[in-house]
Amino acid sequence: MERKRISESTIHRLSLYLRTLAELDADGQATVSSKELADREKLTPAQVRKDLSFFGSFGTRGLGYPVIELKDKIARILGVNRTWNVAVIGVGNIGSALVSYKEFARQGFRIVKIFDNDQRKIGSNHKGIQVSDFKDFADEAPEAGVEIAIIAVPGPIAQYVVDDVVRAGIKAILNFAPVNLRVPADVYLRNENMSMELEYLSFAMVNNHVQKKTRRTV
Amino acid sequence: MERKRISESTIHRLSLYLRTLAELDADGQATVSSKELADREKLTPAQVRKDLSFFGSFGTRGLGYPVIELKDKIARILGVNRTWNVAVIGVGNIGSALVSYKEFARQGFRIVKIFDNDQRKIGSNHKGIQVSDFKDFADEAPEAGVEIAIIAVPGPIAQYVVDDVVRAGIKAILNFAPVNLRVPADVYLRNENMSMELEYLSFAMVNNHVQKKTRRTV
DNA sequence: AATTGTGAAATTGTTCACAGCA
DNA sequence: TGCTGTGAACAATTTCACAATT
User: Fold this and answer.
1) With a CB-CB cutoff of 8 Å, which residues 88-127 of chain A face chain B?
2) In chain B, which among 147-186 make CB contacts under 8 A with chain A?
3) Which fold has domain A84-195?
4) How far is CA A12 from CA A77, A119, A123, A175, B139, in A?
5) What is the fold of A8-78?
6) B165, B137 Cβ separation under 8 angstroms
7) Residue B78 touches partner A, C-beta closer than 8 Å
8) Is there contact between B33 and strand C, defined as CB under 7 Å from any strand atom?
9) Average pLDDT by consecutive 10-residue portion of chain A (218 residues)?
10) B33-59, pLDDT tens digit by residue?
11) By the CB < 8 Å criterion, does A188 face chain B?
């Protein structure tokens, strides 16, 4: 199968293309050129073509790319042409916002379980899902077919939570807690650090940082 | 002053170092080596030293870096050795989570104004702040000394909101809406795309992607 | 003895430029 | 003619490796 090293930036840009293709599709546009796609994302046409070429040739010379087909193809590459079962752990500010965040559902990430360790929250209802006691995670998460765990607990307890999550056999974790977590090598861990982009803005303003091509401004 | 091109990745790593240094400081550790810092972030010691060397020499050969001093120095570089006044626009799921998010305050990002266009929300109270009508943004934001705007409104209206924000003279914007926004070249815009990391996890699982050095897993 | 700071080398990522095709 | 797909050229970033310093 695939035997090239696809860089992290390429994957992130595929996410961008996917979003834009969905917009174009909604507008009823049938084809799109690498130039148009590039302009929307503030990238170069060559970059777009190179990114796509890692996975095959989807375009037509002289014409461009068929919007719907390309969208489907990228969705397949990213693995979002299907549904993923997600558990949210911690139903505080961030956790409950995520449970209600429609964009996740739209991308195929379906929240099927919610966990917390606060007795006042356990049993309460969020978007039709009963909050479970986190100590039942190892039983209930596999039972519900959970494949991805989102950690939205306070920093100080995040490592304990993630240890339990790993022990329950979950292999993919998205961490919103503002701490560095340790997981075994066979577990995928990504961090969502919401202060980071604010700090970038702060840096830019303090240093009158000249903006350039915008490599990964998402 | 500074006359080197500092890359975006370097800035992001400074955020990581800052967070880790705060942890080390809290643990009472006085010095740290590039090796220890690197291990915590899954980077190389050379990378850490190179990043820091862009801004000066803060370490002592044979000894390492003084934790508190380095933390302060990085805070100064990032511009977070001060307070920034922030307005949150849109007090739905995400917006209200951000208003309550303690990490922002800890980093010096102080939410001083909240705006919405929903009459049922205007006037209501979130963490001691009265929600203002967004149509008064141009008057009230400058008055409150707002320097950074966080956009947490639904995608379809985000461009209109951002246009008004720019017109009110705001030069730094953090966008949580899942759309590409256009702003003039002199306005700093960063996007927080929460689906992106989930899509990365999805990609990794579907492709059995081998994890490498983790350049920007935050 | 340990660890920084940094040029130089190696690697990775981006852009160019053009042949190939609809 | 217009636009893709892609090697080759170029640019940026990372790592190496070692002299300098405590």
Assistant:
1) 93-94, 96-98, 100-101, 103-104, 107-109
2) 147-148, 171-174, 178-180, 185
3) Rossmann fold (3.40.50)
4) 12, 38, 37, 17, 38
5) Arc Repressor Mutant, subunit A (1.10.10)
6) yes
7) yes
8) yes
9) 75 97 95 97 97 96 97 97 98 96 95 98 97 98 98 97 98 96 94 96 90 44
10) 999 999 999 999 999 999 999 999 999
11) yes
